[in-house]
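re the bet — no i am not wrong, look at it urself. input seq straight from the record:
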Amino acid sequence: MNLLVVGAAGGTGARLVGQALVAGHHVTALARHPERITTRHERLRVVAGDALDRADLDVVLPGHTVVLSALGATTRARTTIYSQGTANLRRSMTAAGVRRLFCLSSGALDSGAGTPAAQRLVTRLIIRPLHRHAYADMRRMEDDLATDDRVDWTVVRAPMLTNGPRTGTYRFTHDEDRPLDRPTQISRADLADFVLSHLDDRALFRRRVSLSY
């Protein structure tokens, strides 16, 4: 497949790029700071661009099969990187005739029934207030995606991300009535593994997926 990875210079984006190349895909890596992408490969094209500038996306999107968005806020200030960046992606994808989109969100937006009380308390009193602007923008992104039937999107809600190894062993659910119980953490490598293993999984089209060890 021809994959476009947006936010490719970040920790998760870099793993998506690297693992996609190993899997045999052709990859375009879009980043505001392309000099931070050190990977070199005959099937890799590195492009400077900003998801908040739709003109950049209009230029790079044609010819791709799947868009993998690894967009993320780099500060705790107010942000529109999730909502506006993804809205720009959706509009450019529609113009280019590209339908498949993966986006990253946070498992902290909702808690499963089996989540321990202490973890719920920490999430409600510390984690959500600390990252309130990013979480609010993730929520806007998810709500906007739910209204768009021109894009076959999947939102992956992950708990705490680590730099651990790729194991290929994790739990996930796309049943929104039964969120994943006791989410703990997931490595960026296994997050990338999940995404790349489900690129054409129609069961995940227009679904929010919870992922964790």
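see?? The first helix runs from residue 11 to 22. told u. also The CA atoms of residues 61 and 96 lie 6 Å apart. so pay up
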